[in-house]
Task: structure prediction
Amino acid sequence: MNEKERKAGNEQQLSRRDLLKMLGGSAAGMSMAKIAGLGGSAAALLGGMPAGAQSKVEIWTGFGQGRMADAMQGAIDNFAVENPEFAPEHIIVPWGEITDRVIAATAAGSPPDVHRGWSGTVGNAAIGALTNLQPYVDAQNVDLSDFWPATLDQMKFQGDVHAMSISTIVQFLYYNKDRMREAGLDPDSPPSTIAELDEQGAALNDVSDDGTINRLGFSPTVPGLQIWDWGAAFGSQYWDESEGNIAIDEEAMIALFEWYKSYADQFGAENLQAYASTYGGNNFGRNTPQGIYYTGLITFWVLGSWSYNDMGEYGPDVDFDVIPIPQLASADDSAPGTSNGNMYLVPANCANPDGGFAFANFMSSSPFVAINKALPDSVMPSRRSLANLPEVDEKEGGWTILARDEILPNTLQRPSFGGNGFFGGALNEAAENVMFHGADPAEVLADAVARSRREVERLRG
Amino acid sequence: MFKLKRDPADQSNSWRTDNLPAWGLFFVAPWIIGFLAFTVYPFFASLYFSFTNFNIINFSPRWVGLDNYVELFTADPIFWISIGNSIRYAALLLIFATVFDIFIAYLLSLNVKFLSIYRTVFFFPVLVPVVAASLTWIWILNPRFGLINGLLDLIGVKGPNWLASPDTAMLSIILIAVWGSGRQVIVYLSGFNDIPRSLYEAADIDGASGTQKFWRITLPLLSPQIFFNVVTLIIFSLQSFSEVYIMTGGGPANSTLLYAVNLYNRAFRDFAMGYASALAWIMFLLILGLTLIIFKFLSGRVIYER
Amino acid sequence: MAVLRPALANSRALSAEERRYFLARRMKTLLTHAILIIFGITFMLPFVWMISSSLKPNVDIFELPVRLIPKTYRPENYIDATNAIPFWQYLWNSTYYTIFATIGAVLSNTFIAYGFARVRWRGRNVLFIIVIATMMLPFQVRMIPLYILFAKIGWLNTFLPLIVPNFFGNAFYIFLMRQFMMTLPKELDDAARIDGASEWGIFWRIAVPLSKPAILTVAIFEIIHTWHDFVGPLVYLRHPTKYTLSIGLRLYFTQYGAEWGLLMAAAAMFTIPMVIFFFFAQRSFIEGITLTGLKG
Result:
């Protein structure tokens, strides 16, 4: 960065600070108005709009609890203040069902106006389930070059923007320092290669004679197979844009499947599965203090950065840290996992697409949201200007700079083509077949790719 | 499927003038309307959709001929896995549930005291909503802290991994289905109670053994109930969905992926509505075929007259 | 046993053979009870475990050895469970669905069954065989086109797709009520006809009052069925404010994972209304099942 840019950056930041001050002022004004009994029309009064002109914006997210729900509500309140012409209504849908339910509601003709999703959700554009946001982006001169290149790619479907990204998830290798100390390992030199990870993990396992896993050092199958990320770490890609079709690095994926299998063989695939299902449901107790991460039942694991601040909430006493995912040393194009944009998307045929876009754009561009929502959710703002705010550097915990400077620029972008969900499911099935039934990796991979390509074709119509 | 009550007047020619179809149709009209709207229409629509690639968002079916069916049979291993799973599930459930329910109903028919308490107990699982029951079973079958493995742990035995292992997951869901088959116990119990005592007394006089009485008297006279339960159980188990969808989602490694779960996933997870319609039609033909076979095989052996 | 007792009391001295016979009988009775009790306890254990877990604090959930009787009680689980999800909203949705689905089932099936059971007309038996045949058509075949149909007419995310079809009869209930109505004496109809009653009058004033047990049975079956229904709400109710307890409970599980205490409390609150209901309706219920267990 040369001197001039830095100056420009500072000016930008200053102006953002000013904006923040204004925001704070208007928020205070609104709360005063509320106290004075003006209620919901306060926002309209501040914006100089008659209350009757407000149009409802229905927002679906999965933020129904705790810290993140509060942060989300704060963001929505600010949106209401900044955009008095819209009346946001927040509806909470469980994460695992959000995409399916939005599509079903879209088919039913009653979709929300905007909803939270991920890079993979952009693929729903293939069946016409999303509103093309490119006209809005063009009309409002949104600066697309501000987004991380990988995230911008994920926002687009066939060249047009179909989603506005608020933040981008990267993957960390989390490690529990207390447990490393217990086993006599140096908590300041965590594993940096796959081989070291295997080795250090093995030193920390506690398995009964009958195969019951009491505590786990490391297994790439726990908490989940994390196939996109480990595949990237082993040097595979998933999509060939020039061919417009699924393409994997077969050699890398076979090596990955062999790696999974070595763990299945060592512990017994079903013992690993049993361990995973013992301490919680499908989510591994992520949202309760009994989850394995918070009780020291696992030493090394890979999860998205979003889990970082969860650790503080549910396992405040755990001494842990994060590093980039180790990569296979011998692989040419390996990456420290994938990046996955958190998106706001506007369903096709919704009642208020203008309001939907306004909200999506607000979430992706508001400094308030970046600092008060994205960072507490431990995800990096998707716009570089926001990711470079001084508040990001000041954020304690140390994950922010690692995520922004070391991981984000090097990750592989998670696929967002139509049918990516099916493809992910097929890869998981293939890996399970290798682990549980000793299937031939090359064979099941070829089959998964063939079936997924057919699905891509089918979705093209 | 059932032996219908016959109205003797039907056989005579004495149709009264005031009994022309008008009144009959008046009463049956709601069913006819519902039949056309909720059965006939979807029946043929789903046949049509099965020959298309159907886009759920803009409701545009694109004709693809037999493509879906060809793909099913030649290029979709999941289809075959799910058929195999469903047949295994139905067959084992049929055997376990029938043997167990007849056994319990037999014990209950022995004029035991506290009959109504026992009957309530065996019927109780039917009352637990399927979602509540499924979630409870996930917890009971927890590999470490669940009730079953916890109790086994008390005597120093390591229990199986139940739903976490492809070897035992299917068995688990079958046993849970047997647990929930109390309706059948009640049906069998009524069958046992309808067998005239005099037949057993006569057999006693002839010096028949218990086993002989069971095979020669009990089983033949219980055949209407067996027939009814077997047919409904097969139809029910081939369509079985909720328990597995909630408890395992079809895993691990597709070991409990029942046909109906795969069908739902294809329709409402992947939104491949045309393909899923083809799956539904295969399912219909499968159930129809099996039911006809059972009819041919069993109905001749069912003894209705007492 | 009941028959044998007086015989026992009247005989002053039993021969050795007789004594052996009664001993064997007694052993058999004991064995029968033993088996029934063992299986009976096994059958009730899941429910006991549900209640037991629902009263445990979360720290006691993952604990060995397992305890059926909680070490410490935490009844607050029940309050927390109703706060963790919009429990009362879902409970109301379940209740609403159950009430209207049951009204529909009772009205339509009584009406239709009368047409099949008490009115003689050409084509009746052919049509009735079609009614029975529809039982064999899997729900899955109808699911997709009905979903599309209801989507087109804007019924998704409402209770209409779940309730309206109930007003057009159900093969199983038609069958059940027809079987019952055919046992009512014909003479009543004839007498009423001579008095100049219309077909409607006979239906309303004779068939309906006499069919009360069967109507009750249909109502009971339908209440249980709708309360339990999972697939219908899963397919048609996509809006979070419309979830029934069936859907809400499962989603709660996938979202919160390991909060077994709360989840079991919610499951218990979902189950208990059915248990209370069964307690009051037990006789009609058992009779209903016996009735469908069909005899000629």
